[in-house]
Specification:
The chain is an all-alpha fold and 595 residues long. It is 76% helix and 0% strand.
């Protein structure tokens, strides 16, 4: 009997192993994904001696299978006996790191990086480092690109002689004949620099950085921008000025817009890395030129950084730089012919008000806000409105209120429903800033109109919006101003509007109190229980169940129960289902049989 149990437990494992050899790709993939199960059944010794060599010999497979294999091997350390034997995983992963498909190579490199930290120092030097060297000297570019991602994970734990060899190999990769290899080396240069000593960075890596920054391929040059940030963080101000800045200046003026775009995108990180003095002497002027770049993509990327760049400036020159260098460019970008540039600026320009203060904001920024609120592009107007809180803290929004209204109305009536949806989300924020009187006079009707929108997503968002408005203005406002308009929709000829009434009631009932719920809301719900549309009727049942705690006990017996009992005999199956569910739910909640 015991032998039979053993055979039964081994049989599925045998099937999985057979599937590894099957001609059907789906079966092989299934077996690869269950490799850990096979390894556990085989034990660590047989896994090392049989399974891993078998996997190494069967690397030539479909990319989907190889990707799954590369991912599985990264978590295989405990299954081969822990850190003492983790090096046995290197052989199959090395083969995977050389295949043609990029995603497979990347996953193999990721797994190699994961298991590198689990190697003991002696195994790292005797097994992992030789693998890195072999990959970096491979005949095909695929192996050399994979090697670039492995230097940083082993460098710190090897002896000085091996470190020197690794740096030499990395320098060779930086000067490789193949652009793909140089690109990979440029992408990992900053990461490698962080694990090297300062003198080694200056002696070996900065010359490689300079060479890559002057590469004839812009796809290589643009990756050196991120490397420059990492390297600058390792040097003092004098070293940055002498060793890095000549190259960085050239990169910031690169003939390729893609390189300049990368500079603009990473500009605030570069600003923090190169310290204050260099920012004042070099970066302010460079940023000025990026804001006026000939390419719209570069201007948009730079415009996104306006607020962050100005906030990171030294306090002693912050306002001066903003007024003399940045603000003139900002004024030009407000009227930029490209809508993406204007939209990018609108998302950050409000943040400048904290730097300029009340008087400076009113004099210099307020006219720009007003211009953008009238922009023909809805995204520009929307971005200004979404960031009003920044201005409200400095000058209040009363100065903008008259210009805000036309912009809000235009966005609320925009033909694109996603634009209408976006402005709904900002209405509670605006309501709090503009006050209850302004809201009741100018925006209340707008919010009610959204409840009747032709798009469900708008009606749903407008319903949720009501709760936020009640939280802002209080239950008294809800009872006096909001509820009458909501309940009036229950008589609309369009059943979708009657449904919206129920959705809105669900949201508002909790803030209205039992008296209003029983006297005003309940009769409307009961009346809708006799609606001609089944969708309305079964939502009545759902609403009654949800609002049960808000009704008086006497009303539950005299009004709610008869309504639900009538719905349980409805001709529509869905109405009957939800009516029964509501009755059962109320019985469960009350814990008695009185209902």
């Amino acid at each position: 009997m015991a032998d039979g149990n053993v055979e039964d437990s081994i049989y599925p494992i045998a099937v999985l192993i057979d599937e590894l050899r099957n001609e059907d790709v789906a079966l092989r993939l299934n077996s690869i994904k269950k490799l850990s199960t096979i390894a556990l059944a085989l034990g660590v010794e047989r896994t090392r001696n049989e399974l891993i060599p078998f996997l190494t010999d069967t690397i030539y497979d479909e990319d989907e299978v190889l990707l799954a294999l590369a991912e599985q091997l990264g978590n295989f350390t405990p299954l081969v006996g822990g850190s003492d034997h983790v090096y046995v995983l290197l052989a199959p992963l090395e083969s995977l790191a050389t295949v043609e498909e990029t995603v497979v190579r990347d996953k193999a490199v990721e797994s190699l990086r994961n298991i590198a930290v689990e190697h003991k120092p002696k195994d790292l030097e005797s097994h992992f480092v030789p693998l890195v060297k072999r990959l970096s000297q491979g005949d095909w570019f695929t192996s050399r690109t994979s090697a670039c991602g492995l230097f940083s994970v082993c460098y710190a734990r090897v002896n000085p002689n091996v470190k020197s060899e690794l740096r030499n190999h990395y320098k060779m990769l930086c000067n490789d004949d193949t652009p793909m290899v140089r690109r990979a080396a440029a992408g990992k240069l900053g990461e490698f620099a962080k694990v090297c000593d300062g003198d080694q960075v200056k002696a070996d890596l900065i010359p490689s950085f300079t060479s890559l920054a002057g590469d004839d391929q812009d796809s290589v040059r643009l990756l050196t921008v991120e490397a420059s940030i990492a390297i600058a963080g390792l040097l003092n101000t004098t070293e940055i000025e002498d060793l890095l800045m000549p190259t960085i200046r050239a990169v910031m003026q690169d003939k390729s817009w893609r390189v300049r775009y990368m500079v603009a995108d990473k500009f605030t990180q570069l600003q923090k890395a190169v310290k204050f003095d260099i920012t004042k002497n070099d970066l302010v002027n460079a940023y000025h030129h990026l804001l006026r770049d000939a390419e719209a993509e570069v201007r948009a990327a730079a415009a996104h950084k306006v607020k962050d760049f100005c906030e990171a400036l030294p306090k002693d020159c912050q306002e001066q730089v903003l007024m003399n260098s940045i603000l003139p460019c900002v004024k030009e970008l407000v009227n930029d012919p490209n809508q993406h540039v204007k939209s990018a600026l609108a998302s950050t320009i409000m943040g400048l008000s904290n730097i300029l203060g009340r008087d400076g904001t009113i004099e210099h920024l307020l006219p720009l806000f007003l211009t953008q609120l009238k922009d023909e592009c809805p995204e520009v107007r929307l971005n200004i409105i979404s960031n009003l809180e920044c201005v409200n803290k400095v000058i209040g929004v009363s100065q903008l209120s008259q210009s805000l209204l036309p912009a809000i109305v235009d966005l609320a009536e925009d033909t694109k429903w996603r634009v209408r949806l976006a402005i709904i989300e900002y209405i509670p924020l605006l309501a709090g800033q503009l006050g209850i009187e302004f809201f009741n006079e100018k925006l209340n009707n707008l919010c009610m109109a959204w409840l009747s929108d032709s798009v469900f997503a708008i009606r749903e968002a407008a319903t949720k919006n009501l709760k936020k408005l009640v939280e802002e203005f209080g239950s008294e406002w809800a009872q006096n101003t909001l509820m009458p308009k909501v309940l009036n929709m229950s008589r609309n000829q369009n059943y979708l509007h009657r449904l919206t009434t129920l959705f809105a009631i669900n949201v508002l009932a909790s803030v209205c109190g039992k008296e209003l719920a029983s006297k005003t809301i309940l009769p409307v719900i009961i009346n809708l229980g006799g609606d001609s549309v089944p969708n309305v009727r079964f939502n009545v049942a759902k609403t009654l169940l949800q609002l049960e705690p808000n009704f008086e006990d006497s009303d539950l017996q005299s009004k709610v129960k008869p309504c639900l009992e009538k719905l349980t005999t409805d001709t529509d199956v869905d109405v009957r289902f939800f009516a029964v569910e509501a009755i059962d739910g109320m019985y469960f909640n009350s814990g008695t049989s009185n209902f």
